[in-house]
Amino acid sequence: MNTVIVILGASGDLTSRKLIPALFTLFTKKRLPAETAIIGFARKRFTDEEFKTLVRTAAPDPYDDAEWHAFSQNLFYHVGDVENEGDYLALSEKLNTMYGAACNRLFYLAVGPGLYPAAIEHMGASNLTTESQGSGYRRVIIEKPFGRDLASCRDLNTQLKHFLSEQQIYHIDHYLGKETVQNVLIFRFANAIFEPLWNRNYIDHVQITVAESVGVEHRAGYYDTAGALRDMFQNHLLQLLTLIAMEPPALIEADSLRNEKAKVLRSLREIAPEHSARYTVRAQYDGYLNEPGVAPDSQTETYAALRLFIDNWRWQGVPFYLRSGKMLREKTSEIIIQFRRPPTQIFDTQTGSTELNTNRLSICIQPDEGIHLRFITKVPDEGMKTRAVAMAFQTPKASEAEFAPGAYERLLLDAINGDASLFTRSDEIELAWKFIDSIRVGWESDDAPPPSSYAPGSAGPETADDLLAHDGHWWILGCM
Ligand code: BG6
């Protein structure tokens, strides 16, 4: 049976920078099903050849000529307006003629989120996404943001469920496609030695940092209406949190995994609007208001930090600190598991020769993917003086070996193969919005203080340091 991948919004950046490169790599690795065609669908009046040239020239890395030639034999373009049902009917006819009614179809919504309702409705109404006996699968991959709060997310979910079952829906969060993020699952559940320590008895606190050195770039129109909390926390950071905090799933399979992740989100202690000053920080980088497309009086946060708690047996009382921002000193994403200190210090701490913060696990997501375990050892020939050392595992780079596929590559292949383990389920998305909404209400209340500021290229606002100092902690970057 043929497989057809239709990209809606194919003339945009995501298609040429991420989707086509990922599909091309899958093709060169011979991982795409044998008879796979890719069809770009967008309003611009391109011919097939013009579309191929567009995606080839805008690609981040050059394609090998011979491989590209072979790949592009099955790359096509269909002129269509996402808001016009007639264009979907024409697409449907084309698909039936070219590949037959019995053919697997994967749709990728690479359009702006404002167009999701129209796309979902028209795909459904023109039967493009209707599955029936022997029709092959019909699946839809949806990019974030899925809604801008709980209410709008629920509306979208209601609409989606009218045309599609949950099994047909693939909500993509590209962080789950990153190698080291998946490694969290292997690390936690394929090693027996960490699990006994993975709880409130041994873990002092957890930190999750996703820092970016870029600003809003050309996306101010979207970003200024979203902000860091919606753009990064509702999805990527809370997803990382679920993988760290979840209970062992019965199986590594979509529903077992997602049931456990949803339980974590359900156990998040709500940050009530009146408590937002004690548990959250929002900040804006200096100069943000001068970025093209940003409202002159914008209060949108380009940085946020949260101090949150998970109310369950495993994590009661353990603070989780999450932070993410743009225009920071460096691009780095990492998770720190800080273990408790020994109950008594029998080595000399007065002179500073004994490390106070002892064991720490650093899970480095980017730029250098790997896992470091820090522990204390003796300094040779210096009495009982101690020092911290690290055992480090480094994921081989893609250029050194074909080990680290891009996130989109992995996720597209999973969707083609019907494995939704690394996609978020509708209930997870709703639970995440519920948590985020409450914080937003606090930030948007009349007596809320304005966002603090921070200098571009810095480590973030001082207020974020105060958030941890409250508990006697400080932000750590452990992967350097
Ligand atoms: C996206 C956000 O989801 O993730 C962007 O919308 C952000 O604002 C990006 O820059 C970060 O992804 P990565 O993979 O570069 O860390």
Describe this protein's structure.
With 480 residues, the protein is an alpha/beta fold. It has two domains: 3-143, 3-Layer(aba) Sandwich (Rossmann fold); 176-404 and 427-469, Dihydrodipicolinate Reductase, domain 2, CATH 3.30.360.10. It is 34% helix and 20% strand. It is built from 14 helices and 15 strands. The protein has helices spanning 13-28, 48-57, 65-72, 85-99, 116-125, 150-163, 179-190, 220-226, 228-245, 254-267, 276-279, 407-416, 426-444, 462-469; strands at 3-8, 36-42, 75-79, 104-109, 138-142, 169-171, 203-211, 280-285, 303-308, 320-325, 332-339, 360-366, 370-378, 386-394, 452-454. It has a nine-stranded mixed sheet, sandwiched between helices. A six-stranded parallel sheet has the order 3-2-1-4-5-6. A hairpin with a 7-residue loop joins strand 13 and strand 14 (386-394). The radius of gyration is 24 Å and the shape is globular. The model is unreliable at 399-403 (pLDDT under 50). 6-O-phosphono-beta-D-glucopyranose binds next to loops.
How is the secondary structure organized here?
Layout: E1 3-8, H1 13-28, E2 36-42, H2 48-57, H3 65-72, E3 75-79, H4 85-99, E4 104-109, H5 116-125, E5 138-142, H6 150-163, E6 169-171, H7 179-190, E7 203-211, H8 220-226, H9 228-245, H10 254-267, H11 276-279, E8 280-285, E9 303-308, E10 320-325, E11 332-339, E12 360-366, E13 370-378, E14 386-394, H12 407-416, H13 426-444, E15 452-454, H14 462-469
Parallel strand pairs: 1-2, 1-4, 2-3, 4-5, 5-6, 7-10, 8-15
Antiparallel strand pairs: 7-11, 8-9, 9-10, 11-12, 12-13, 13-14
Helix pairs in contact: 1-2, 1-12, 5-6, 6-13, 9-10, 9-13, 10-13
The structure holds 6-O-phosphono-beta-D-glucopyranose.
6-O-phosphono-beta-D-glucopyranose binds at residues 174, 212, 231, 333.
